[in-house]
Amino acid sequence: MSYPPGPPTAPDPAQPTCYRHPDRPAGVGCQRCGRPICPQCMVQASVGYQCPDCTHARPQKVVSGAAAFGRGGGDVIVGKVLIAINVVAYVLMVTVGGSVSSPQGSIFEQGGTWAGGVATGDWWRVVTGGFLHASPLHLLMNMFLLWLLAKELEPSLGHLRFGLVYAVSLVGGSFGVIVLSPDTIAVGASGAIFGLLGALVVLQLRSRQNPWNTGVGGLLVINLVITFLVPGISIGGHIGGMVAGALAGLLVTPEQGPRTTVGLRDGFLALTAVGLGVLAVVAAGAVVPYA
Question: How many CA atoms are closer than 13 Å to the CA of 233, on its beta-carbon side?
Fold first, then answer.
């Protein structure tokens, strides 16, 4: 026996509905305008989802496979400043005569991250080591990755929060160097870059995206494999930066995220960077008792 279909079920008034399809429940809010959107209207962005109107209003930042990082960087300011600082630091290091082969009296020797130096009072090494590089190729590879990640993260997080995530990642990498490689001088921005990768993975997971589908998960795994297989790479710097960056990804709020605790989260993120720096100095004294 068959029965005629009943009247259509009205949407639950407590459930937000899609602004384009009022008869459909909304799954998430657009990361740019905040309007509720249903699964059909969700367009994947680098962090979160956007509505079709916002996607058409501005070139979309979709991370997808080999073309994951092929867009311009008009919203990237802090990333450009960081790249400029790294390049200037390398030029100064070479000009002064500092290199890995002859570091005596050089910026490399005085600024590289080294537990022995930090333990004797050179606390600035916790920061300066992340802006020095051992060779032009070292600098080029790190700046290329920094540019790609800055194009993904800075427009989504905003300039201040991107800078805070970078700071937490850099200091976390220095902490890893001091704890795991106290007898070596480490230089390079790779600890901070690993932190940006860790933060991007966490932010995508928070936005219900699959890092494997976006290509970011594969990029992180490849870099981890290189870290453990290629001699001369600072394992402590990379792992420390990645863990610190992932922690920052849990704390940071994207530009279009909930605004109720943004100031508190930003302040806590800044305190995290300072706290990691203090821990790095304390750890240097612990691993170098003769200091």
Answer: 18
| pTM of the full structure | 0.75
Residue environment code for 234-261, b if the CB has 16+ CB neighbours within 10 A, otherwise e: bebbbbbbbbbbbbbbebbbbbbbeeee
238 catalytic? Reply is yes
Read out DSSP for 123-167? TTHHHHGGG--SSHHHHHHHHHHHHHHHHHHHHHH-HHHHHHHHH
Selecting among 46, 106, 169, 190, the annotated active-site residue is 190
- Residues 199-231: tens digit of each pLDDT: 999 999 988 888 998 889 999 999 999 999 988
Q: Nearest 5 degrees, angle CA 240-CA 242-CA 246? A: 120
Domains of the chain: 75-209+216-287 (1.20.1540.10)
